[in-house]
Amino acid sequence: MKENLFSMRKEYTSPPLHVKDLNSDPFVQFHAWFEEAKPLLEPNAMTLATVDTQGKPTMRTVLLKYFDTEGFVFFSNYTSKKAQDLAHNPHAAVHFAWLGQERQVEICGRVEKISRTESLRYFLSRPRGSQLGAWVSDQSQVISTRALLEAKFAQLKAKFAKGEVPLPDFWGGYKLFPTSFEFWQGGGDRLHDRFEYTYYENVWHLARLAP
């Protein structure tokens, strides 16, 4: 089957973006754009790209749970496909598609596990159902039916009914420490504005890229 999508076209109407419009610190610039993206659906949803032992890339959507002047934190099962990839190659990229505002941001860098204390702090903030869900799922493993997940959830719900749900030792956070940022904004006639920050010699360098 072949479907022609030539007529699917979005004309971008954002005003031109100039160097003077951007902060010299990419973390500050990200925070500014993120604040403006908050009215959008799931603005903290980001596509995480990793590479496996065979050099094959994989992508999935995860949620950014917090960020600071060092990096960007997300959480996962430590036996998942992404965790296996990161154990082999700790370099990854994340991508935010804020298309409702004609913007995208890509961040590349090195990923490391955060401390168990930090993971626990976030885990305790989760709804109880989400805490139980972390115990239930052998993430990325093949299962025969959804009923198995539901049965295991019911068992764990009963097991932990009288107390707090403990943090699984196979679940926790990762932090991506950026080495580059790219900020993209749509422009008329496909003259999009792209700016890349790269870190070297202990300084962030900013350059405009061709669209």
TrEMBL record:
SUPFAM superfamilies, per database record: FMN-binding split barrel (SSF50475)
Domain Pyridoxine 5'-phosphate oxidase dimerisation C-terminal: 171-211
UniProt xrefs under InterPro entries: Pyridox_Oxase, Pyridox_Oxase_CS, Pyridox_Oxase_N, Pyridoxamine_oxidase_dimer_C, Split_barrel_FMN-bd
GO molecular function annotations of the record: pyridoxamine phosphate oxidase activity
Enzyme class: oxidoreductase
Domain Pyridoxamine 5'-phosphate oxidase N-terminal: 38-157
Entry keywords, A to Z: Flavoprotein, FMN, Oxidoreductase
Pfam families according to UniProt: PNP_phzG_C (PF10590), PNPOx_N (PF01243)
TM segment ranges: none
Cofactor(s) required for function per UniProt: FMN
Annotated EC: 1.4.3.5
PANTHER family (alphabetical): PYRIDOXINE-5'-PHOSPHATE OXIDASE, PYRIDOXINE-5-PHOSPHATE OXIDASE
Family matches, as NCBIfam families: pdxH (TIGR00558), PRK05679.1 (NF004231)
Record-linked HAMAP family: PdxH
Family: Belongs to the pyridoxamine 5'-phosphate oxidase family.
Protein name: Pyridoxamine 5'-phosphate oxidase
Organism expressing this protein natively: Sulfurospirillum tamanense
